[in-house]
Specification:
The protein has 268 residues and is α/β, with parallel strands linked by helices. It folds into two domains: 187 residues, Rossmann fold (3-Layer(aba) Sandwich); 71 residues, Orthogonal Bundle (DNA polymerase, domain 1). Helices cover 41% and strands 12% of the residues. It contains ten helices and seven strands. It has a five-stranded parallel sheet, with helices on both faces. Helix 8 links the parallel strand 5 and strand 6. Helix 4 runs parallel beside helix 6, helix 5 packs across helix 10 and helix 7 packs across helix 8. The protein is globular. The two termini are 25 Å apart. The relative contact order is 0.18. About 8% of the residues have low confidence.
């Protein structure tokens, strides 16, 4: 029996947040410094810790690291406001909900889809016949689904909840952008969180990162994880392939192909 930890990126992999994050950055900056944010830093694939430092430096704020924790705390505190904005402006990307649903069929027995004690979906019927490659519907893999995202945790939870994508994710097993500046450091943190919750080793290719940027791929390569890249953000499929992704998909709309790619099955 194989166990896999599948770590989903959030923005432009599972959802299009409609610019909610940038709006909240501007709100926090105005509240802290009494002026409008002159311009933001590149957010794609980066952690909020790194983005905030870059944003403050670009805005000419002296010694930006001194303001980092306060900025992140205020950003997290805006989650209720962000939820209202996200409900209005955000959307799940095509195929995201179906992909999460399909992988939930491999959830560990004895857990619900969010990792809490209970009756896991994988205990009741398992995946559809043939989906896992066995031909008889009997799963030979257990999948823990969580996130590895540059968002601070409260913002990630808010964004996912606003579009109804949080049900199958064990968010306590993931890692978030308020913990480390470097994305690859988050992989080690998520593995540790998942190991403590499930009593399994998720080292090496037992961890799969799914994301839309070369930085997602780089985090996987640096930590020995597998990288499944989706060209749903601002990076082309060719660029994602050149960055070293194990598999590149155009999007998440072909559920069987997405599941096969994540489980490292052969697929058309």
């Amino acid at each position: 029996m194989r166990w896999l930890l599948v770590l989903w990126d959030v923005d432009f992999t599972l959802i299009n947040a409609g610019g909610v994050g940038a709006r909240l950055y501007r709100m926090v900056f105005r509240d802290m410094f009494g002026t409008e944010l002159p311009g933001g830093a590149d957010m794609a694939g980066r952690t909020d810790r790194a983005i905030v430092l870059d944003t403050l430096a670009r805005a000419g704020i002296p010694e930006p690291r001194q303001h980092l924790d306060q900025f992140l705390a205020r950003l997290a505190a805006l989650a209720p406001t962000g939820h209202e904005l996200a409900v209005q402006h955000s959307r799940a990307l095509p195929g995201a909900a179906a992909a999460l649903d399909a992988l939930a069929a491999f959830a560990p027995p004895g857990r619900d889809n969010a990792g809490r004690p209970g009756t896991g979906h994988g205990q009741e019927g398992g995946p559809a016949p043939g989906l896992d490659g066995t031909g008889d519907g009997a799963p030979d893999v257990r999948v823990v689904q969580s996130v590895l995202t540059g968002n601070v945790r409260r913002m990630a939870e808010m964004k996912l909840r606003a579009v109804g994508l949080d049900a199958h994710l064990d968010l306590a097993a993931g890692a978030y952008g308020d913990s480390h500046e470097v994305r690859s450091d988050l992989v080690h943190l998520a593995r540790g969180n998942a190991a403590r919750r499930y009593g399994r080793d998720f080292s090496g290719t037992a961890t799969v990162l799914v994301g839309d940027t070369p930085l997602d791929v780089a985090a996987a390569r640096a930590t020995g994880a597998r990288a499944v890249a989706v060209a749903t953000g601002g990076t082309s499929a060719d660029e994602l392939a050149a960055s070293g992704a194990d598999v590149v998909l155009p999007d998440l709309t072909n559920t069987a192909t997405v599941v096969s790619a994540i489980l490292a099955r052969s697929y058309p």
